[in-house]
Design a protein that fits this description.
Blueprint (H helix, E strand, L loop, with lengths): L1 H15 L3 H11 L12 H18 L3 H10 L1 H7 L3 H25 L2 H16 L2 H10 L3 H18 L2 H22 L7
Helix pairs in contact: 2-3, 2-4, 3-6, 6-9, 7-10, 8-10
Length: 191
């Protein structure tokens, strides 16, 4: 009887786990209109903001592996591109601090070898041009948003990561800095 209850609780908990696929499905079902050029107001804007906050909450619940899947499937890019400037700022405000903090916490919790493997993968992505392509797409965003994202990323790196994680990430951060310098023409990091 006890094992049946434990099994039931596990099944229920796993069905409620937020995954990249679940977020992708939710975004597709929302069918947001493109407000990037022509934002609306009134009840439609309020309803969209509620849905945007719900999606942001789901994104904040993703674990490290699901965040990587979410990044790889790119469904969020189309969703984000349809948002008005005000909505984009709200979404970044709702997700970026939490995302960066969780990312550093996840890296801290990884065994050293797994963290080093993550760094090697990131360096390969840079070498193969994937990161530069992603950064070029990011450059299409409003410069203010890009600065906010990079500042929060650096703040999380300096404030949240352990000394060991910082040491392990140093080569990756150096290469990321080079990519950002090429795209922005200046240093990457807090000002």
């Amino acid at each position: 009887m006890v094992w049946a209850v434990v099994s039931g609780v596990r099944s229920y908990a796993s069905s409620k786990k937020i995954t990249a696929e679940l977020i992708d499905r939710e975004i597709r079902e929302l069918k947001f209109e493109d407000w990037s050029e022509n934002p609306q107001a009134g009840a439609a804007a309020k309803e969209r903001e509620e849905e945007l906050r719900r999606i942001a909450d789901m994104v904040n619940q993703l674990d490290f592996a699901e965040r990587e899947k979410n990044r790889d499937n790119r469904s969020g890019e189309n969703f984000f591109s349809k948002l008005s400037t005000k909505e984009k700022n709200l979404f970044i405000d709702l997700t970026i601090v939490e995302s960066m903090s969780r990312f550093m916490e996840a890296l801290d919790q990884m065994p050293e070898e797994q963290r080093k493997s993550f760094v090697e993968k990131g360096l390969k992505e840079i070498q193969n041009g994937r990161t530069e392509e992603e950064m070029a797409r990011a450059k299409e965003m409003d410069e203010t948003l890009l600065k906010k994202i990079s500042a929060e990323g650096m703040r999380a790196y300096f404030d949240k990561a352990s000394a060991d994680t910082k040491l392990d990430l140093a080569p990756l951060m150096e290469k990321m800095n080079e990519v950002m310098q090429g795209l922005r023409g200046n240093e990457f990091g807090p000002r």
